[in-house]
């Protein structure tokens, strides 16, 4: 019994000492440990104030505001790399393609161009379409690169907004909290629910038809491309999906999957100067032909002299 007493006392001493030791460790960490001498345990990131306006990119090209405007969106960016493996990232591929298309359009003249991003930064999906709407774009093109577990999957694909996505957006826009929105220049504020729904539906039908028209021009011109670096298509038909980035009721919008980064040949082509040039030539030509068609049959009939490769192209870069 006497031998057990010192052991019992030692047990209680140790039991009481553990919390004290733990407290000393916390105190030492707070005042002496890195970083910041242990005084900061929360990473603070400055955010813009609520309700701040969306920053709009510059518009390049002719100063004439009546010239058509295309907004080109390089998918992903910043902390969102997208598809790809190793050093090949979708965000870098899409930015390079977007820059190449812009350069081609500006060199040919006659079309105004804006990029949702021209560097490696992150944008929310709704922000990308919002930029096109705020700039009153005549066409919105979002560029992406696909990926698949099947290494044989290859080729480009064109997407427009599906009926389901269109219907969801119609409900959102015509809701009371969105009455400040305008559709094709017509304010929805002050309109009844029925009138708002009709205006949104009519605008969506027109935008959907024009989106489909542009996508068909891309497919048609892609079929006539020549050379080893030409863009091949996985499917010769237009696909549809409820992509958030395409949900703009009054701007024709198309998502262009340029190829599969999971496919060695596609990745090599999209990463090469020849492949980027082929993509830029096809896309820029389709954009210009689409805008010519919007001007009417007479303008489309004269496209031989105003198309990207025509003799008047160099003179139209006012």
Strand content: 5-15%
CATH superfamily: Zn-dependent exopeptidases
Query: Taking Cα atoms only, what radius of gyration do you get, to the nearest Å?
Result: 28 Å
Q: Describe the main β-sheet briefly.
A: 6 strands, mixed
Order of helices and strands: HEHEHEEHEEHEEHHHH
Mean pLDDT: 77
CATH domain class = Alpha Beta
Number of domains: 1
The coarse overall form would be elongated
How far apart are the termini? 105 Å
Q: How much helical structure, as a percent, in the residues? A: 40-55%
* CATH-derived topology: Aminopeptidase
Strand order of the largest sheet: 2-1-3-8-4-7
Q: Do you know the CATH architecture?
A: 3-Layer(aba) Sandwich
Content-based structural category: alpha/beta
Strand segment tally = 8
Work out the helix count. Answer: 9
Q: Low-confidence stretches at least 5 residues in length (pLDDT < 50)?
A: 169-180, 182-200, 302-318
Structural features, described:
The chain is of the alpha/beta class and 318 residues long. It has one domain: Aminopeptidase. The protein is built from 9 helices and 8 strands. The chain has helices spanning 4-32, 90-108, 125-134, 163-174, 193-223, 264-270, 273-294, 297-301, 303-306; strands at residues 69-74, 112-115, 139-146, 157-161, 182-183, 186-187, 239-241, 253-260. The strands form 2 sheets. Strands 2-1-3-8-4-7 form a 6-stranded mixed beta sheet, sandwiched between helices. It has a two-stranded antiparallel ribbon with strand order 5-6. The model is unreliable at 169-180, 182-200 and 302-318 (pLDDT under 50).
